[in-house]
Design brief:
The complex is a heterodimer of chains A (199) and B (104).
Chain A: E1 2-4, H1 17-20, E2 31-34, H2 43-55, E3 57-59, H3 67-94, H4 102-124, E4 135-136, E5 140-141, E6 149-150, E7 154-156, E8 161-165, H5 175-183, E9 188-192
Chain B: H1 9-22, H2 41-59, H3 63-80, H4 84-99
Helix pairs in contact in B: 1-2, 1-4, 2-3, 3-4
Classes of the chains: A alpha/beta (199), B mainly alpha (104).
């Protein structure tokens, strides 16, 4: 049994980007707008999951059995942290420390939730960053080389999943979402909104 | 020594906001392996100091970092004396200073 943590570099063939290349085109393109997050596995993630389970690989200290299970945990955790962060930021607004400006509230909530997610990843022993199993607030470049990029809050390349926190509803017709999909070759985009936010 | 939730200057920028919003007593509970080193004002500011040292290593010394170090110590003193508004505003200045330095 192999357990992937930050102290055990991703050197196994079944643990890095090479492993997912054959599966990269399996996921369907979809955009989900979620309040509390639901189940988010794409077909590609299911396939990866079977491969991981077959290799008896565990991800993190919680021992997620495959990339799909890990992605589900990240999505649920990010929703939970986004809710807590939003409440925390609104508390600062109530105290008169921050203006009641949706742009400022959104930016602060995003930053706070990302820190808490990184702390959770640290506790799990999972590395974050370019080339890692998960990327938090990292640039996603246009693959045709235009130099354009977007910065999703959370990106799990192995399950072709992008999570982006927002106070507003977003649709897949919006330029930001279109870019996420174009720059990632059609990955699934889920908008994470505070559960208590008004529409 | 606890591990802080940043690994480069880019992710450190978010940490400044975290300390600003959560100080002095709104910190979230840490989980799993980090549960035995809960967030406190002292730990959070230790993270800010460590992050600024890391920033200098990554980007080189800059006036914005020196100014940020001064503001961080002033913010720490303000929070310690219960002046949350002053601490909050000083960390807002730190965030604005660091935001001007490109990272990815």
């Amino acid at each position: 049994m192999i357990r992937l943590t930050a102290k055990e570099p991703l050197t196994c063939p079944a643990t890095n980007a090479d492993w997912i290349d054959p599966l990269i085109n399996l996921a369907s393109t979809a955009t989900m707008v979620a309040g509390p997050a639901g189940r988010l596995l794409a077909p590609g993630a299911e396939a990866l999951g079977e491969a991981a389970t077959g290799s008896d690989i565990l991800i993190g200290r919680s021992g997620f059995r495959n990339i799909g299970e890990f992605t589900d945990a990240v999505t649920a955790k990010y929703q939970e942290l986004y809710d807590e962060s939003y409440a925390n930021v609104m508390s600062s607004v109530s105290q008169g420390l921050l203006p009641n400006d949706p742009l400022i509230i959104g930016n602060k909530t995003d930053a706070l939730a990302r820190v808490d997610l990184r702390d959770w990843l640290n506790a799990e022993g999972i590395s974050e960053g370019p080339g890692q199993i998960i990327q938090v607030n990292r640039r996603l470049y246009d693959p045709i080389g235009s130099g354009n990029y977007r910065v999703p809050d959370v990106h799990v390349p192995g399950s072709q999943t992008i999570l982006d926190g927002s106070l507003q509803f977003k649709t897949d017709a919006m330029m930001q979402i279109l870019d996420y999909q174009a720059f990632s070759s059609g990955e699934k985009v889920t908008i994470i909104r505070p559960s208590t936010a008004q529409s | 020594m606890t591990k802080f939730p940043f690994n480069d200057f880019h992710s450190f920028k978010d940490f400044v906001v975290f300390v600003q919003i959560c100080s002095a007593n709104k910190f979230s509970q840490r989980q799993g392996a980090l549960a035995d080193t809960p967030w406190t004002l002292n730990l959070a500011f230790e993270g800010l100091r460590q992050g600024l040292r890391m920033a200098v290593k990554e980007k080189g010394e800059r006036p914005a970092f020196a100014e940020s170090r001064r503001l961080v110590e002033e913010a720490y003193d303000a929070y310690k004396f219960g002046d949350i508004r002053s601490g909050f505003m000083k960390l807002e200045q730190v965030q604005k200073l660091l935001q001007k330095i490109p990272s990815q």
